[in-house]
Structures are given as structure tokens and as C-alpha cells.
Write a structure and sequence with these properties.
The complex is a heterodimer.
Chain A: E1 2-8, H1 13-16, H2 23-42, E2 47-52, E3 67-70, E4 74-77, H3 82-85, E5 90-93, H4 96-106, E6 113-115, H5 122-131, E7 139-144, H6 154-169, E8 175-180, E9 195-196, H7 197-209, H8 212-215, H9 220-227, H10 234-244, E10 249-257, E11 262-269
Parallel strand pairs in A: 1-8, 2-7, 2-8, 3-6
Antiparallel strand pairs in A: 1-11, 3-7, 4-5, 10-11
Helix pairs in contact in A: 4-6, 6-10
Chain B: H1 2-11, H2 34-47, H3 49-63, H4 70-77, H5 81-87, H6 91-100, H7 105-119, E1 144-145, H8 155-160
Classes of the chains: A alpha/beta, B mainly alpha.
Chain lengths: 276, 175
């Protein structure tokens, strides 16, 4: 049963370059992450699905799945240097049986790969650093290829979200779901730090309204032009929109923080309220 | 331009230019899909401490297992971050290679800018699809924040921005 649905940023600078950020902005983001952690805990979640956009840590262009789900008893991370990322090496718990049941249900409508070995990069390690710092909740990682075109169209991410919702509701465990990615950003390029705030706010408005048609208007060419290659990661947010099934959303924090290379965001859907 | 971008995004990484051939291994063509193999080497290097050890011990010997041009091989040995970015290496792969060489973040960004200045626009891969030249135009559109090099001084500007930190919701009156 899905009990929580939200999204957050995952940029490596959030932990790795924290000392270089405006302290007020950084601390505000950290507080928002703390509130998200409390909300997930309050939901009684027994497992956390993390829909991420990994960055060539596990998947490469020799065999790139559009969608992949982890099916392991544990996941090690971060794959990056700990000093560089600001996160110590960890082993996060998984739940192979739960993953297997979720995968089987998702596969009824969406083709995906599964992985019994998966090393978390910053795309998952940074959110977990704030949301499950004690690693006391089993993780089910989900990856959407947002890095190596050709990418599955955004409408397919919507279909994945619908399938994840159906899968979560098919198991007795209380499931929290987060999507993690950037909105507009040009990460790891000379334009790192560039953020199109107006574009971000328009996207978040569509996300909060959970307006399927408006969210599926995006195509990669225009996203690239307005929001950079990092904007491809809106797929993770759109997946959560579909899983929330028209529930209304609220952005709890949004702030462009250039040294973190993204408009830092936390947001959630209210699953207890009727769809608009 | 957007149509061209669509086509390029649809076809993924474009094939390397044949004129860049020039490998040293007899009988092995070292020019086909070169960018793919540059990135594959870096992907594997980023993941494997064992490969990193071999790379530090004898980088040329390690690279002999990959189908690379001499230009690419030299760039990976030096390392020439700017040239690798110009060749089209994805920054999500390249930034870890820079970190492996103890290149500080701002220096990493500057080396990419220098590479574009020296060698020209990104040649292949995802950054080349819309004519990306690796330079940020701060005047492009309202609300676009500037780059990270000036981050330390951006606090006042951020503090003055209306709606800071919150304030977006589903838009209904009761929110």
C-alpha cells in the first residue's frame, strides 16, 4: 500500500560542497530534508522505493535499460569517493522478496530490467543520507535512464509510475515512494550552477496540479534547450506524479543553490486528499 | 535547431570521425565509435579500484585494451580534461576522473571551459546535439541563476529573491 509520495533533489554538491554554499540556503534545504524524513517516518513506511536517475554507476551504453529495479538484500554506496561526496561508505538494506513481488506486478504493463547487484551513486546516496540516515528501512531502487540518449519518452515514465502505484498497492507492506532528480540544471559541465528558475517553477506548478497533459507536453529537445541535459531527470518527478494518481501536491522547499548545481527541491503529494 | 536536436537525441552517440583514426595496435582499427570506448574506459575506471591501481601503474598498458585514437589515449594519460570534454565525454563520467586526479571542482569546471576555448565546441555526444558551446550566457532569459564560480558571493541576491524557499503549491485556495 502506497503511504507516501514525494520528490527531492540529489545533487552531489548538497553534501560534497556544503561548505561553499550560502549557509542560509543550505540550512533551509537541510531542514526541508529533515521534515521529509519525519513525514516518511510518520507514514509508517516499511520500505522506501527510490526512483532515481543514476549517472553511469551501474548502467552504461553497452546495455542500457530504460527502466531497472533493484532486487537485492543489500546495496553498497556511495560509489563515489567518500571525501568528494561527503558521505561515508554504507550498506543499505534491501528486501529481495518485496522487490520481486513489486517487479512482477510492474512487468504486467511495463518492461524493465532487474538487478541483483547495484551500487548506489549520489543519485540515491544523497537522499538516503537525509531521509534514512540510520539505514533502518529497506530500499527498492528504481532507475530511469536520463543520461544516455535515446531515452524512453516521458510518457513511458508516467506509465512506470502508474505501474509502481499498482504494485505498491498490491503488497501488504506500507510503501513510501520518492523520486529524486534535478529540474533545470547543467550538471558537471562548464555551465554547472546555471538554473532556469522560471522554468523550474512552471514545472513544479504542473507537478503540484498533477496535470498529466501538462507534464507530458515536455519533449527532450525543448527540455534540453531550456533546462539542460540535467532536465531529462524530470522523468523521476513525473513518475511520482503518476503514482500519486491525481493527488494534489505541495512544494515544501525550492531554492536555486548554484554551488549545488540545481534548484533544490522537496515536495510531496497528499495521498489522503481526493484527486482534483 | 530543435529538429536537429531531436534527430541527434534519437540516434544517441554519433559515430566518431574516421579521420581521427591513428591507434598504435597492429591490425586493430582504433577509430570506430571512439567516444563510446573513451567513456567505457572511464566508466570502468570509476567503478574499479583494481583498474585504478593498474591505471596508476601503467596507464598506456591499460588503455591498450580499448579502441581509442592516439588523441584520446594521450588525453586520458595526461589527463587533459578540457580535450576530453571537447571530444564529448559526459560530465557525469568525467567529473569522477577529475576527482581521481585530485582536480578541485572549480578547477575541473575551468579546465572544461579552457578546453572549449582551445579546441572549439563539443564534438560528439549529448552536449553537441543543440550546438552547445560550453559557455553560459547569463543574460538568457529571466530567472536564470549564474554559475558556481561566483557562488560564494550570491547569498545576498538569493536572500532578496521573493518566494524564497517555499510557496509553491497546487494552486488551490485552501493550500
Amino acid at each position: 500500500m502506497l503511504v507516501y509520495a514525494g520528490v527531492c533533489s540529489h545533487a552531489p554538491g548538497i553534501t560534497g560542497r556544503a561548505d561553499q554554499a550560502d549557509p542560509m540556503a543550505r540550512d533551509g534545504l537541510y531542514r526541508a530534508f529533515g521534515e521529509m524524513r519525519e513525514a516518511i517516518a510518520a507514514s509508517g513506511a516499511e520500505a522506501l522505493i527510490v526512483v532515481a536517475a543514476e549517472h553511469f554507476a551501474n548502467f552504461f551504453m553497452n546495455n542500457m535499460p530504460s527502466f531497472a529495479v533493484g532486487m537485492a538484500e543489500f546495496y553498497d554506496g556511495p560509489i563515489e569517493d567518500s571525501a568528494w561526496l561527503g558521505i561515508e561508505k554504507f550498506r543499505a538494506p534491501g528486501d529481495r522478496d518485496l522487490s520481486k513481488r513489486l517487479i512482477a506486478e510492474v512487468m504486467q504493463t511495463v518492461d524493465l530490467a532487474y538487478a541483483e547487484e547495484w551500487k548506489f551513486d549520489h543519485g540515491i546516496a544523497v537522499p538516503l543520507h537525509f531521509l534514512t540516515p540510520d539505514f533502518d528501512v529497506p530500499i527498492v531502487p528504481v532507475n530511469i535512464n536520463c543520461q544516455g540518449p535515446p531515452l524512453a519518452p516521458i510518457a513511458r515514465s508516467w506509465a512506470l509510475g502508474e505501474a509502481l502505484r499498482r504494485a505498491a498497492d498490491s503488497v501488504p507492506e506500507r510503501i513510501a515512494l520518492i523520486g529524486t532528480g534535478g529540474i533545470s540544471h547543467w550538471p558537471a559541465t562548464p555551465d554547472s550552477g546555471k538554473i532556469n528558475e522560471a522554468w523550474d517553477r512552471d514545472f513544479l506548478d504542473r507537478w503540484c496540479r498533477n496535470d498529466k497533459a501538462a507534464l507530458l507536453e515536455y519533449d527532450d529537445a525543448t527540455v534540453y534547450a531550456d533546462a539542460g541535459q540535467g532536465g531529462f531527470e524530470i522523468r523521476t518527478f513525473v513518475t511520482v506524479s503518476a503514482a500519486a494518481s491525481s493527488a494534489p501536491g505541495t512544494v515544501h522547499f525550492y531554492e536555486p543553490i548554484p554551488i549545488f548545481a540545481v534548484g533544490c527541491t522537496t515536495a510531496s503529494y497528499d495521498l489522503t486528499r481526493p484527486p482534483r | 535547431m530543435l529538429r536537429a536536436a531531436d534527430e541527434a537525441l534519437g540516434s544517441g552517440v554519433r559515430q566518431a570521425t574516421m579521420s581521427t583514426c591513428g591507434g598504435s595496435r597492429p591490425g586493430v582499427p582504433r577509430c570506430v565509435l571512439s567516444l563510446y570506448y573513451v567513456q567505457k574506459f572511464l566508466f570502468e575506471l570509476n567503478r574499479s579500484e583494481e583498474l585504478q591501481t593498474s591505471y596508476w601503474a601503467d596507464g598506456r598498458a591499460v588503455l591498450d585494451s580499448y579502441t581509442l585514437t592516439t588523441e584520446e589515449e594521450d588525453a586520458l594519460i595526461e589527463p587533459d580534461i578540457g580535450l576530453l570534454f571537447h571530444l564529448g565525454v559526459n560530465g557525469q563520467i568525467l567529473m569522477h576522473f577529475a576527482a581521481l586526479h585530485q582536480i578541485e571542482w572549480q578547477d575541473y569546471l575551468q579546465r572544461m571551459r579552457d578546453g572549449i576555448e582551445t579546441h572549439g565546441p563539443v564534438r560528439e555526444g549529448v552536449y553537441a546535439v543543440t550546438g552547445y558551446e560550453g559557455t553560459h550566457d547569463p543574460g538568457r532569459g529571466p530567472g536564470i541563476s549564474a554559475g558556481s564560480a561566483e557562488e560564494g558571493g550570491s547569498g545576498a541576491e538569493l536572500a532578496e529573491r521573493p518566494g524564497r524557499g517555499t510557496g509553491i503549491s497546487a494552486g488551490s485556495a485552501e493550500e
